[in-house]
Amino acid sequence: MGFLATALVLAQAMQATARPDSLADLADKISPSVVNITTTTVVAGQAGPNPIVPEGSPFEDFFREFQDRNNGNGDRPRRSSALGSGFVISEDGYIVTNNHVIESADEIVIEFFSGEELEAKVVGTDPNTDIALLKVEADKPLPYVNFGDSDTARVGDWVMAMGNPLGQGFSVSAGIVSARNRALSGSYDDYIQTDAAINRGNSGGPLFDMDGNVVGVNTAILSPNGGSIGIGFSMASNVVSRVVDQLKEFGETRRGWLGVRIQDVTDDVAEAMQLTKAAGALVTDVPDGPAKDGGMMQGDVIVSFDGVEVADTRALVRQVGNTDVGKAVRVVVFRDGKTVTLKIALGRREEAEAIPVAQPQDDAPAAPTEVLGLTLSPVTKELGKELQLPTTATGLVVMDVDESTEAYEKGLRAGDLITEAGQQKLTTVQDLEDRVAEAKEAGRKSLLLLVRRAGEPRFVAISLNG
Q: CA angle 316-190-292, nearest 5°?
């Protein structure tokens, strides 16, 4: 018992000492690797606001003379400065920051913790993750920091942010990881949310774990007033390190490209397609590209990519983007009630160009008919011209939507084009009515429609009442 009590006391003591009473030692360790960034941009001069003076007004000549005196010989260019943060990742002078810190800059000056200043050049940028890689030439090895594994960061872990908030110079703030895997707006977003104070000027600065490794790059804040309210976002280091490696090697990013348009699988879509769970990525379009060459079809549900189960579209986009260009991967899709394995050689996303999908045309005129709360008409030359549809377009045009129906609730609107029902092509309203009858006979609760709006496709599952 005495031994167990002693062991328990020691364990509690070790746990207590895991939290430092002070972060001063860590701050001393990492400070030399953090930098302030000042950018200068030459912008066109502005003549200032022009007063609105009615033509013929007695004040017209007065304001014209006033502007001439202030403008001189015309608008003169002026220099605009901005501030940000960054950190050194190698002793030979590579520096990471946000792309928006240095975007369009004519001059970039790096200020080190020691007060030394060096001019930097841009090695490469990635607007998709808002990351930029810079390089300075120093006459001695520079102190630097390493990337940590952001996947091991847990909600509640202590973190430290350092940078140049509001232009006040080197400053440290501390907090915890508030959330993981946050998405803001980009396809490759993987943000760590933290309550460590992050303000304007902190952009591009590092977020450290307690071992002094960089687990994130401070990028954005959520605030109604522009100041920190404890909701800051740092791009995860595992995303950043991969981008940085490519920028260092190629001067640009090289992401894998599958070549499909996709949407998430919702519960009603899963039921309509007889999937066992609402997971995977539903293929809405397959333009010319790697996926089409590999045999993928519109209406396939991608359930596995390169041996990894696909949770949703965001997970698939990130995984494809992180896969090497040219790699042949196995993609498992759900098609017609069974799984099919495809082998697809990935292209490069940066070089990809969207190609419109050509469809056959049937211009048979017919009176509008109501089905599933939708007033529908086959595509005619007149409708196609009015809606600016491709000349090869076929399907059913939504003329009106009953606002009390599920179709309206699911977002269908007049002008939409329905090209498929139950993953079969539509050319007439009778085709749709046949698909509805077949689904009801099979005991299905909903019918999957392929809807195009302004050329963009998406699947919508509509319940079959009765």
A: 20
Largest CA distance in the chain: 102
Residues 240 and 185: their CA atoms lie apart, in Å, by 16
pTM of the model: 0.68
Closest CA to 370 of 436, 455, 458, 321: 436
Closest CA to 282 of 300, 266, 308: 300
Q: Beta partners for 214? A: 147, 208
* Catalytic annotation present for 130: yes
Q: Select the more confidently predicted residue: 173 or 421.
A: 173
CA distance 335 to 34: 52
Q: Please list, in sequence order, all residues whose beta carbon lies within 8 angstroms of the beta carbon of residue 150, skipping any fewer than 6 positions away.
A: 190, 192, 215, 216, 236, 237, 238, 239
Q: Are 461 and 446 in contact (CB under 8 A)?
A: yes
**Which residue among the candidates 33, 150, 178, 203 is catalytic per the annotation?**
203
173: which 2 tokens? 């703030």
Confidence band, pLDDT 50/70/90 cuts, at residue 357: very low
Q: Do residues 297 and 283 make contact, with C-beta atoms less than 8 angstroms apart? A: yes
Q: Which residues contact 235 (CB under 8 A, 6 or more apart)?
A: 129, 130, 131, 189, 190, 191, 192, 216, 217, 219
Which is catalytic among the residues 33, 85, 130, 209?
A: 130
Residue appearing with tokens 């017609």: 336
SS3 404: coil
* Annotated active-site residue in 31, 90, 100, 363: 100
Q: How far apart are CA 345 and CA 83, in angstroms?
A: 43
Question: With contact defined as beta carbons under 8 Å apart, do 373 and 400 qualify?
Answer: no
Using DSSP's 3-state secondary structure scheme, residue 220 falls into strand
What is the rounded distance in angstroms from the CA atom of residue 41 to the CA atom of residue 410? 47
Q: What DSSP letter does each residue of 64-128 carry, written as one string?
A: HHHHHHHHTTSPPPEEEEEEEEEEE-STT-EEEEEHHHHTT-SEEEEE-TTS-EEEEEEEEEETT
How far apart are the C-alpha atoms of 364 and 7, rounded to whole Å?
Answer: 85
Q: Does the active-site annotation cover 288? A: no
Beta-ladder partners of 376: 369, 398
As a whole number of angstroms, the distance between CA 323 and CA 418 comes to: 34
Measured CA to CA, the distance from residue 312 to residue 368 in angstroms comes to 37
Distance CA 322, CA 320 (A): 5
Using pLDDT thresholds of 50, 70 and 90, give the confidence band for residue 364.
very low
